Structure formats: structure tokens, C-alpha cells
Amino acid sequence: MDGRELPRIRPKPRDWLQFAYIVVAFALVIFIGLLAFGVVFNGVTIFGWLFIGGFFAFRHGFIQYRDRLAMSGTATAKASAAAIGLAELSGSGHAEDVRNAPVSRMPCLFWSVNVQRWEKGRKSKGWKNKLDNSFGVETLELEDSSGRVLVWTRGASIIPIKQVWRSEDGEAPEAALTLVKAAGFEWPARTSSNPIRVTEERIPSDAPLYVMGTLAERREIPDKPTSFVPRLLERWANAETDWAGHSFFAAFSFASQVGRRWLARDLQRSIPRWSPPNVDRHQVLVWKGTQRRPFIIAGLVEREALSALSRRAWMYILGGGGLMAGTLLVTIWKLTDVMR
After folding, report:
1. Among 33, 98, 123, 231, which residue has the fewest nearby CB atoms (within 10 Å)?
2. How far apart, in Å, do the first and last CA atoms of the chain sit?
3. What was the pLDDT predicted at 292?
4. Nearest Cα to Cα of residue 91 among 203, 209, 214
5. How far apart are CA 256 and CA 25, in angstroms?
6. What pTM does this model have?
7. Which class for 101: exposed (0-12), middle (13-18), buried (19 or more C-beta within 10 A)?
8. Which residues pair with 86 in a beta bridge?
């Protein structure tokens, strides 16, 4: 070093002004977002949202019942001879990327595990989720006596085998005890007032598999999602953020772009990614399709799958109808009370 002092860099007034624009713009975007959330979700509108939720549950129940009727009225085809369109197949399931289920330790195409604890509070009581994990393959192959057919599982209604371990019944497998400890609890005694249950749902690999879906050639599957919401989220998530200019409007536009990209990427985590199988475009495979046909993957035989669909359908129909009726009764009671 020759002892010379390094030049000091002093920010220009315009730099400070741009920084202030950015801070104010981001604060304004956050405020607008919170304000919109408060307007949409509050003590008055909550009854409307509950009614809408009940309606969609009611509608979903009828869709499940429609799927049951389609399942009972469609003949099972062979993998090598199934016709293009709605197809019903039965055989065994195979995949390269299988994983062992957490409790049973069986290699599975799909599994989910849930640890719940019974809790009683001043305002509510019931089973509270303490741990919830799941896994599912993106593609699998169904094999029967005639050959194999590829299945792209995105959007399928899964009907798994269900197994439950309850603390009221005594001891549980070591793997279940490990999950309970991971949730921060110890396995309670049978007489505990806070029982615990561990639920595992699974579709084992190399085991009986039932599939109903749309059989089509790979070239008929679009490379990008066709639904509006996934396309919008994909556009927001991949949008380039650009701050053009030195005005407050440019700063606000930049902040809103960043906010939309953050929101879209956060919401995309709950939506299965659109990644059609990378196979020959003339190869046939089973997928959800675009005509609102049933798409079911079950680890049960057809008769048991029909019973499971019936239970699901009536649960959603009765639950959704009850929620709508209860919401209307509470709303009418509150309006009557106000008019008095």
C-alpha cells in the first residue's frame, strides 16, 4: 500500500429516492394484500365461504357417486387390447421409484401417514393432526396377463388400503412409536385421556391394482396445463421482474410483480406439477384426460373399491348438505336477531 486514501462512494440523491420508492411500494403492496384478505375473509363473509365450501363438498359427493356408477358399469379390459377412451384395467402395479411405507415398511406406489392426538380444550375437542406425510409416484405400469400399460398418476383419485394403530388397543409397531416421538409425544397408556392413533394408507408395489381412466396416445396430452389457475400461476411464477424507470409507479409495478411471483410459487407447492411422461408420442397411456371422466387408482379389488367410493360419496353429500343447511340456519337466526 502507498498510503493513499481510497475514494469514498457517496450515494446520489436519486439513489436514496429510488430506495424510498421501493420501500414505500412494497409496504403499499403488502397493505393492499392484507386489506383484500380482510375484506374477503371476516366475521361477516365467513358464513358465505362456509356455504360455498359445503356446496363444493356436496358437488364432490355426486362426482364420487358418478365415478362409482361408471366403475360398476364398465367392463374390465386387457392392457394390450384396451380401446382408446375410458378404460378399466386390473392387474398388478410396478414402478421404479417406490418407497417403503413408514410403519408397515412395505414398498409402495403411494402412501400417507398421519399421527393424531385427542385433545380437549375450552372451546373445542377432537383429533388434532400432529404429523402428516405422504408419497406418490408420478408414473407406474399396470401389468396383467396380456402385457403392461403406462399410467400417469397426476390428478387421480386414490383409494388405498388403510391401517390404524390406536393407543387404546395397546402396543404399536416400533416404527409407529418412532413417528409418535417425532411428533413430540410418547405412546400413552390405554386409559389415557389423550389417546393417539397412527393411520397409514398405502398402495403396495407388485400387488393388486385397479385403474380406471382415459386411455390415449402421449401426443394427445398437452405439454402445458390447460386449466386457467395452473396456467396463471405458472405465468406469474416464471415472470421476469423488471424495474423500468425511476418513478414511484415503476417501483409499485416492480413490487407487485415480486409479490405475484412469491404468491404463485407458494401456491404451486400444493398443486402437482405438470410433467407428462417423456415417452414416444404414439405410445398409449392412461391419464386423467380432459373430458371430466373418472380417474381412479385403487389398491383394492373392484368390489372393495366400489364400497369405498360409496362411503366417500355419501360422506361428502351428507357433510356438504349439512354444512350448507347449518350455515343457512345460523345466518337466518343472526339476521332475525338483528331485525329485532
Report:
1. 123
2. 87
3. 87
4. 209
5. 8
6. 0.79
7. buried
8. 214
Distance, C-alpha 258 to centroid of its chain: 25
Q: How far apart are CA 58 and CA 50, in angstroms?
A: 12
Per-residue cell: 25: 411500494
E-only strand ranges, the chain: 85-94, 99-100, 107-120, 125-136, 139-144, 147-152, 157-159, 161-166, 196-204, 208-217, 284-287, 296-298
Nearest Cα neighbor of 127 from 38, 65, 194, 68 is: 194
Q: Helices 46-73 and 302-339, interaxial angle, to 10°?
A: 160
3-state helix, strand, coil in the chain (%, to 5): 40, 25, 35
Q: Are 219 and 287 in contact (CB under 8 A)?
A: no
What is the CA 261 to chain-centroid distance, rounded?
Answer: 20
More confident residue, 44 or 94: 94
Q: Are 214 and 88 in contact (CB under 8 A)?
A: no
Query: Residue 115 phi/psi, 5° resolution?
Result: -110, 125
Looking up cell 417406490 gives 98
Is residue 93 a contact partner of residue 203, using CB atoms and an 8 Å limit? yes
Q: What one-character DSSP code corresponds to residue 107?
A: E
Q: Which pLDDT tens digit goes with each residue over 209-264?
A: 999 999 999 999 988 877 777 777 777 777 776 666 667 677 777 777 777 787 77
Q: At 11, is the secondary structure helix, strand, or coil?
A: coil
Q: Is 118 exposed, middle or buried (0-12, 13-18, 19+ CB in 10 A)?
A: middle
Which triple of cell numbers denotes residue 29?
403492496
Give the integer Cα–Cα distance in Å for 180 and 174.
10
46-83 burial code (b ≥16 CB/10 A, e <16) = eeeebbeebeebbebbeebbebbebbeeeeebebeebe
